[in-house]
Amino acid sequence: MNYNVTIDMEGRGEFSNFIYQKLEQCKEEYPTYIAKNKESVQPINMMVSNEEQKWVGGISSELYWNWLEINDCWVYEQYRGQGIGTELLRTVENMARKRGADYAMLTTFEQRTKKFYVANGYKVVGEIKDYFPGTNFYTLKKTL
Q1: Residue limits of the N-acetyltransferase domain (predicted)?
Q2: Is 27 a domain residue?
Q3: CB contact set of 47 (below 8 Å; sequence gap of 6+)
Q4: Tens-digit pLDDT profile for residues 65-90
């Protein structure tokens, strides 16, 4: 069988879509539990606004199967230390728990962020040292 390999260093979106669609077509080969439709993913996002109604922080997450995945959580520097991040995290965890989530997970490469999540009950379950030079990449998990 003959074939050609092409290298693309420009990040073509149509190729990523092609791969995604082909993987979606393979779902019937997966166990039913894993093969849930992408539509079953429930986003849970919360935004924090200041007095001028400008966003100063928030959390972006998704609920699927029995997992809550925290995608991003961020608060402007001048609003930190007031418990906003902890409140966002606890609220989204409670919402996910009520919708059937048993676990929460996230990834981060910032040491300060890792400490924040550990202080909120998450445990490091994976670490890649020198993910980029001088910085480690962490996967954290919490039982809800």
Answers
A1: 5-144
A2: no
A3: 55, 57, 58
A4: 899 999 999 999 999 999 999 999 99
